[in-house]
Amino acid sequence: MANPMWTRVAERIGVEAKPPSGVWTKVCDYIGPKRLIKIEVVDDNESWEYSQGTGCGANGDLTGNQTDRMIAGAPVGALIGKIGGSTAVNEADNTLFVAGTLLVMRLKDTQEGPLYLTINDSLAGLADNSKVIHVNVYEAL
To answer: Which of 17, 66, 82, 134 could covalently link to 48 via disulfide, CB atoms 3.0 to 4.6 Å apart?
Structure first.
């Protein structure tokens, strides 16, 4: 199998642990269905705080509060994303995924739209978050 021919669609986008408006940071306007996407953190040493004074990298904190967060099966503080929808939370569309420091995934034929990223935390927990993690996003056919 040949290596994918990656095209960069977003470079060094800052994803804030406390988004300035809404819950999600829009990373790019549109990614088409069936595309292979790659999301990678620019600097693995970057960290953000999911609670005042309690931080982690984009893979999340396995020792943190694991009871109330947007994706229950992922660590608190992990970088998460969704395709489509808006900057408001929409958990009913079942498009949430865990990105961590590196994600490569093929979108389904029904997945298309804007790419959004945020921190895996409870909605109420976003208020005391701080710092930013930077990502690059690529796509291939």
So the answer is: 17
